[in-house]
Amino acid sequence: MSNSWKETLHPHIPPEMAHQIDLFDGQLELKRQSKLDEKVFAETRLRQGVYGQRYDNGLRHDGQQSRTLSFPSGDLSKGPETLWDAPGMQRIKLPFGGLTPDQLELLAQVAEEYADNILHVTTRQDFQLHFVHLEDTPDLMRRLAAVGITTQEACGNVVRNVTACPLAGVCHSETFDVTPYAKALAVFLMGHDDTQDFGRKFKIAFSGCEHEACGLVKMHDLGLLARIRQVNGQPERGFTVFVGGGLGTIPHQAKILAEFASEREILPLAQAIARVFARLGEKRNRNRARIKFLVSQLGIEEFRHLVLTEREQLPFDARWTAYLADLPHYRETPLKNGPERATWQKLNFLGEAEAPQEAPDPYTVWLESNVYWQRQPGYATVTINLPLGDISAAQAYALAAIARRYVGDSLRTTVEQNIVLRWVAAADLPSLYEELRAAGLGEPGAGTIVDITTCPGTDTCKLGIASSRGLAGELRSRLAAANANRPEAVKNLRIKVSGCFNSCGQHHVADIGFFGNSRRRDNRTVPHFQVILGGQWQENAGQYGMAMGAVPAKAIPEVLDAITSRFVAEREPGETFQAWIARSGKKGIKALLDPFSEVPAYEVNPAFYSDWGDPREFTIGDIGVGECAGEVVSLFALEVARAEAELFEALVALDDADYAAADQRAYRAMILAARSLVRSQFLDVGDDPDRIVAEFRGRFYDTQLFFDKYAKGKFAHYLFARHNHPPAQPDAESSQQLIEEARLFIEAAHACDARIAGATAGGVRV
Fold first, then answer.
1. Is residue 160 within 8 Å of residue 242, measured between CB atoms?
2. What pLDDT digit, counting tens, does each position of 654-667 carry?
């Protein structure tokens, strides 16, 4: 950016935002001159929302090559080495998802000019741009800052975007509007001295409702649930405070830190929590550096004591309560007047009057799924259903213009990767629908089984194992095609897909979740997805689902059909999906999934050896006849199957509330998986757990054969920890956690075997 252009923008940028961007620009120049350490620069750019991304020869999930992809060598097969060699990803922060038409229009401009014409809405109400060149990021940040958007701390070991329910302020069941509180905490903690020394990221959410999904406070590092209590006959606003939740590889349910914290206390309490986390949280082992591990290690009582002690010692800060003076004046102003109540009812937009038609018209279908009637009579919130969370630059321009005509500044992004228009006057709904449909934004199905959440997966994420976006796109197409025949019982089930075990697609809180992994058959790698069933989206992510078994990626659509069909056929009146899963039991679900777990031989169906949306084969190369590795592969497959069977028995024991047996079987599953690897090098290891663990450590951990590029040896620590420190009295939480850890250890054993076989065959690491 030229100096004159910077000077033109600077008057429109808040001074602190301008200063932060200038600092990053300077650090970028130092790195260009090799005067800044790579690790320091990595955290610097992450804290400005700049990520590296994966390419896989430049193919997106639909098999198309990005138009902006270019490497200095011109040879896509070599791939990029660093962010200097190829574009990366820019994350953009939107506290509580708040957005204006001017901001959306600017986002469309930068997507067009700096990225690949696509804006991607994330599960934290952010936007992401992909294929952005590193040298363009300071210019992009200044453009965004000029309309009040920041990228500061969108990534990195800091407080990430503060999320809140997109219906806050218009919801029928909320206690009160949490929007101004979410904004105040986001502003207070961004760049705060006490949030700069975390070992890992820290996520915060606000919810106004206890029993809805809203802010999903129970799966966050810090969750705040709106409450009102009576004090001397007067209502007092506050929050139930949750800490230590999180998904990731091993999900944790948040614990209650405070049943009620007044609105005057939430900012200093969050600061005290940040201080305790920064001081006592893990720093060296990133795999255990989230606050959920600290809360689990200390116990909630001790953690609460430390936080309250820290709170008492905090030096006073006027910002703690300064925002409260503005609360009485906070309100959203509708762009248009809604009709009077009597007129509103006559419009028949309440869905009450007309007899059902055999084939509802598209507008009626859209009205039923995408329109939420606000508690304010005459107004509605409309959800723009974005397939895979994507909106093109052209569509964003169109939506900005539509928003100006109908709602003004009342837009928000959602954690389900959509955009909502708030305060739509009821009489405007038909014309709004027509304009949205003309822009390609009128798809129905928001909040239904069609509205699938997915992470970027192998499209752009370096951790992706299987194509989450490819699978989600396929499932969405099939579900949309079958919309007219869909039973009411499955209409509102949530499906969420992650490309790996890290749960960025939030598969643990879906009714039906999938996460990517892989298996091998005949020395070829086959993309698979682990099936997660029984998670609960409602009750603020009130229950996590459990892994039921891995299925080939190409069989997942049939698996989904089988699960939903069985649910419809067997459910009792009023029975929820979670209750049906529990009643069916692990054995019943396993019997349902087993027919889909087999991989046909390559010669019979080669399609199983490619992922969704990607024409290339997953392969590690053929192994020649007579090589010892052929026997090793067969031996591993045979032995690891025993580990998986043992893990399933652990699930059954958990179902039966036999926690000691669940713990012991999960531990035994890890021992068997470790033995399956050891036996590839040392047939006579025997069955003694001490010897198996020692041989595994020496042959696979110390040699780093068990390490992959990103997780390193983290999953081995699950085995070591349980082997060295068995619990005195396993309970539901500890045994369920060990089962999850054993599942990940077994997946890591599969990956280790695949890498070894690939290296032996001179093949490609997958």
1. no
2. 988 999 999 999 99
Exposed/middle/buried for residue 342 (C-beta within 10 Å: 0-12, 13-18, 19+): exposed
The 10 Å Cβ neighbour count of residue 428 is 19
Instruction: Report the pLDDT value the prediction gives residue 351, as an integer from 0 to 100.
Output: 41
176 and 312 share one domain = yes
- Strand-pair category, 88-92 with 453-454: unpaired
Closest CA to 554 of 471, 617, 618, 484: 471
- The DSSP annotation for 441-462 comes to -----TTSTTS-EE--GGGT-T
Q: Give the list of residues 6+ apart from residue 7 with CB closer than 8 angstroms, or none.
A: none
Which whole number is the average pLDDT over 473-478? 94
Domain-located, residue 336: no
Residue partners of 35: CB distance under 8 A and separation at least 6: none
Domain count within the chain: 5
| Residue at 499 is within a domain | yes
312 and 246 share one domain: yes
Domain region containing 250: 170-329
Q: Quick one: 582 exposed, middle or buried, by C-beta within 10 A (0-12, 13-18, 19+)?
A: middle
CA 293/CA 250 separation, integer angstroms: 10
Instruction: Tell me how far CA of residue 532 lies from CA of 78, 493, 520, 549, 580, in angstroms.
Output: 36, 13, 21, 8, 14
- 529 φ, ψ to 5°? -130, 135
Question: Read out DSSP for 363-390?
Answer: HHHHHHHHEEE-SSTTEEEEEE--GGGE
The CATH number for 653's domain is: 1.20.120
Render pLDDT for 49-108 as a digit per residue (tens, 0 to 9): 998 887 654 444 444 444 334 333 333 334 445 555 568 899 999 999 999 999 999 999
Residue 607 lies in a domain: no
Q: Is 307 in the same domain as 420?
A: no
Flag whether 447 is in a domain: no
Q: Whole-angstrom Cα distance, residue 272 to residue 304?
A: 10
Cβ neighbours of residue 4 under 8 Å, at least 6 residues apart?
A: none
Helix ranges, 115-226 (H): 137-145, 179-189
User: What distance in Å separates the CA atoms of residue 699 and residue 642, rounded to the nearest whole number?
Assistant: 21
- Same domain as 670, residue 757: yes
Q: What is the pLDDT, as a whole number, of residue 350?
A: 42
Q: 15-32 and 137-145 are packed helices; what angle lies between their axes, rounded to 10 degrees? A: 180
